[in-house]
Design goal:
CATH architecture: Alpha-Beta Barrel
CATH class: Alpha Beta
Bound molecules: NADPH dihydro-nicotinamide-adenine-dinucleotide phosphate
Number of helices: 10
CATH superfamily: NADP-dependent oxidoreductase domain
Order of helices and strands: EEHEHEHEHEHEHEHHEHH
Radius of gyration: 18 Å
Shape: globular
Structural class: alpha/beta
Number of domains: 1
Largest sheet: 7 strands, parallel
Strand content: 5-15%
Distance between the termini: 31 Å
Helix content: 25-40%
Strand order of the largest sheet: 3-4-5-6-7-8-9
Length: about 300
Amino acid sequence: MSYPSTPRVTFPATAHEAAITLPAIGQGTWYMGENLAPRRDEVRALQRGLELGLRLIDTAEMYADGGAEEVVGEALTGRRDQAFLVSKVYPWNAGRDSALAACERSLKRLGTDHLDLYLLHWPGDIPLEETLEAFERLREQGKIRRFGVSNFDVNELEALTTLSGGDACAVNQVLYHLGSRGIEHSLRPLMQRLGMPLMAYCPLAQAGQLRQDLFGHPVVREVAGGLGITPAQLLLAWAIRPVNGRCDTIAIPKAVRLEHVEQNAGALAVELDDDALARLDEAFPAPRKKVPLDIV
Ligand code: NDP
């Protein structure tokens, strides 16, 4: 398998924005801002990640009720231009007017005048046409550069991309890790056909209700040990591996501990050979039939 020197993912050009290419590992923020770790450690972790090239920072109005956005805002003080900033709107705030107000609140907490990407956090009851209209108004106002979705399965993504303006959807952020490969059956192929990058959340399977001990799995440990890397690095390198010759997955591990941030950035330099991939496939086979989208 051939890798570019640093795996990178390109968000294609839109009618209004040039294409942008980012390192294929970014940073998550769920559980930041909840006093589970000292705030200064969370800020420092995000800043260290940026220094190491983990440019995409993913947050949401949901996380710590806006508290995670405040941590991100603090981390980006004086360095906003280094980050590709992603936030998400609750489905019930994704209406024609409510999305504009929600975005305004997020921008205030983040201390910035624009998001690089604004996602609908999961499908809800507000008609998608309304959300698309709101996203387009936010784009016209310069408050967001691109929009995308999260937790959209095949039917939902197909419905979205057939709506007027829906084909500008830049990304679908879904749960994806070695122990949860359901999207490989049909969602990922659909996204590849649409030329839409994938943002892989919970890439380490270490948080949320679907937490799994992949780090302790004997095959993960053996393959990682053979390559001289940690289990976490193996999982990240696996998540961002090229599929059908394309690097189109950006993984967003959340890490507060600095050694975790450094390891995660180091995973950008890991190349998985065919033998390693075959062993992982055998232990964690891809699904042979459509399964419901995994969510946290
Ligand atoms: P992850 O799979 O990223 O796991 C995070 C956990 O792994 C933390 O406990 C962290 O510890 C630990 N960790 C990080 N790096 C390492 C490492 N190198 N070695 C060992 N342990 C490590 O889970 P998340 O649920 O946080 O998912 C990532 C991000 O995806 C979220 O933060 C969020 O931004 C996004 N997300 C989006 C969802 C959606 O619905 N769209 C749903 C869930 C997540 P520590 O912090 O102590 O360093």
